[in-house]
Amino acid sequence: MNTLKTFLFTITGFFSTASAKKNFIQVKDEANYSYFQSSVNDLLTYDIMSLTQYKKHLYQKFIDALTEQDKMQVISYYRINKDAKFENEYENLQQQMSIHDTQTSYSYLPNKSKKQWHVNFADQHLFGFYNTNLFAQDEIQCAEHPLLSHVRSAAQYLGNRVAPLTIENGPTPILIKDVHRLGFVNIMPTKENRNGIYGNNFAKASLDYIDRMSQQIINDKPLTNFIAMAALGYGSGTYQTYEIEFLFQTAKNSFSLAKELSGDMEVELHTGNWGCGAFGNNRQLIASIQLFAAHLSGIENIVYHTFDEQGKKGFEQGKKIYENFLRDIKINNCESPNFQLDQQFIMYLSKQNFQWGYSDGN
């Protein structure tokens, strides 16, 4: 967590208020994760943190789109155990995985033939800064899906096994299913505002401008599935093997559970430069890790949102590294149960001597 975010988390965490009456939510356990399920109506009984003026405006504008029917929707929350062990079959690598890259941001357009999952580039504290004037990927998703703030509050109240922490003595990614997208915020540059409102530029815009750049979704509200996983951050020099292992284990466990929760449906995974903004990770490394983790987990389709030319270049280089490793293991016919694909891939990446990048401040 960077210094600004640490400061903001410290001063804003005290504004959370206790609701007079919170509807009961039961926590359940499976071998690899703990979870709870709740209707929107029940989640709304869990108060959220105090919001800045801009965020309060967006919250009220978008939350008003909820209908009584919407409030009956059940949202599911899953927190993966730090010692989770998902079985990944070598046979998954024999299947073709469709890979598409784009410089666009997430559109959340529904696809009835595929179960879509969208990666949230999480902080250790799940959605920990939705109430501030920060406006990077994590905060944008919370603004457009305001029920995520109530999900966080419920998880905070229930605590322990479902605590809203994506790292706790190891990776503990969190998956959230069936959350209404209630609004849209245009963050791109315009003639009026050449910087747009992404990241720190959000706080520099006027409230009137933010209102005009936001639109409530009234009809056909899409239900979004999130994978909230936190990368390591603020490293320097050459990546250590344990750092690569942490990143890979985080992605593999996250994608494995997404595949499991999708049942028999084909999965379409949307991700991008995970941890490459404020956290300063290497784009090539992150791309190669996510591609192999998705393929090993049985994901059928991946849409990689590169954001810009720099991101596209990093993705393409990372894709080549992933493809070279696939080629090597197929040539060596590594189907033996003694051949540990995870460790072989981690060591393969470690030998590339990837260098940490730099934080972009967002």
UniProtKB/TrEMBL annotation:
GO terms for molecular function: poly(ADP-ribose) glycohydrolase activity. InterPro entries: PARG_cat_C (IPR046372), Poly_GlycHdrlase (IPR007724). Pfam families: PARG_cat_C. GO terms for biological process: ATP generation from poly-ADP-D-ribose; carbohydrate metabolic process; nucleotide-sugar metabolic process; regulation of DNA repair. Residues 1-20 form the signal peptide. The keyword Iron-sulfur does not apply. Keywords: Signal. One of its GO terms (cellular component) is nucleus. Residues 198-310 form the PARG catalytic Macro domain. This is Poly (ADP-ribose) glycohydrolase.
